[in-house]
Amino acid sequence: MCSTLQSTYTRGREKWNNVTCLLLSLSLIGLHVGAKTAGSPVPVVVGCLNSVLPSLPSKSELCLQDLEQYASSYSGLMRIERLQFIADHCPQLRVEALKMALSFVQRTFNVDVYEEIHRKLSEATRELQNTPDAVPDGGIEPPPLDTAWVEATRKKALLKLEKLDTDLKNYKGNSIKESIRRGHDDLGDHYLDCGDLSNALKCYSRARDYCTSAKHVINMCLNVIKVSVYLQNWSHVLSYVSKAESTPEIAEQRGERDSQTQAILTKLKCAAGLAELAARKYKQAAKCFLLASFDHCDFPELLSPSNVAVYGGLCALATFDRQELQRNVISSSSFKLFLELEPQVRDIIFKFYESKYASCLKMLDEMKDNLLLDMYLAPHVRTLYTQIRNRALIQYFSPYVSADMHKMATAFNTTVAALEDELTQLILEGLINARIDSHSKILYARDVDQRSTTFEKSLLMGKEFQRRAKAMILRAAVLRNQIHVKSPPREGSQGELTPANSQSRMSTNM
């Protein structure tokens, strides 16, 4: 595990005695290194400390099994942002994550981010050098700032910008819409490669006026959505997802869709899911992710198929009832393929559905640290975990008239006192209709007069039917007597009834 850290912490593997001594000191800060045999690869489990997000624990055992493989699941700016997030929130992975980000950013024109990452890497290296037990025998030296690359890249970016701008002016002079649209897209791509997101968004948006087909509109929407996600402008994301879905190429297709349309829809649903997740609308987010097609999920600029499995699975677990969970997740042939990429999430969902709550919650705790290193999921982990636990408590008690809180505490791996606090909160919020016998530690369901409740529902339903019937009769009378209401003119004068004698005719006929 964590092969990207092996070169850092396992240099001089032949000096096994020195490594053994290092294990003892590193275990104090949550870093454990073990090996099967003296000559075998050394798996590493890294404990990460958090100082930024309040939801992250101060000390935890966390491992990204292969940081390099994780980063390869993304492309463009998303890879850089995710590596920077890991570096900011996991000190033990900071140096390796920043090195990868620095290496990748040099393939772009993003000079400002290169300088920022290099500064962070230098600081992280100095901090690591001040921790003798964590420094390998050869020491760690940050790569020098490549000033030659910085200057050369700035000049190349400026020259390319001037060329693209000149080309766009020529296209506008020729008044060829297709060329102008491509010119705006090329300019937007260049700004995005330079890290100038606001100008990239402007260029992609300007291409809209020169779209001549539904395919062009969809491409424009996807470009705007991508940049809006980077800017975390979630309302913009949802707006352009809606625009793309309303194009004839997608809206008019029914039944079986071709591969290209499925790929576009999957991208739109994934982007909408991210926006709903950011807005804390977890049920809507789950529905969006569940509509993604596994065979057409190729959107590395935003997220990976594994992200779809984790985001969709946890949001569904937190908000779906048993029927919805069984119908939309467990029995979903499409989403099952996503869950195969994340067997731990799959097992958690099945354990929850089988009412094995202790195992389910234990497995959730085991994967919590990895989730806290996901830049889009980290702010929601605590809320999602709370909702999943509350739903488990509600489902556990729902079939019973009374429940022994000692047995409940055992089932949920908690103490009776802590369980009582949780149940009290659920009762106050109206999620469990019960009362607690604090002396005997028994939870009793409140008696509900089902007969009276049924009568009340019937009366309310009857009143609703009566209201609808009156509305239908009124509408039929208006149509029969040809009553029309003119819309008021722009001067603001009031509408009038036509014909003039319509009121008298209506009263006569009725």
TrEMBL record:
Keyword list, A-Z: Cytoplasm, Nucleus, Signal, Signalosome
Biased composition (Polar residues): 495-510
Pfam families named in the record: CSN1_C, PCI, RPN7
Organism: Pavo cristatus (Indian peafowl)
InterPro entries, sorted: CSN1_C, PCI_dom, Rpn7/CSN1, Rpn7_N, WH_DNA-bd_sf
Domain of life: Eukaryota
Protein name: COP9 signalosome complex subunit 1
Region feature (Disordered): 484-510
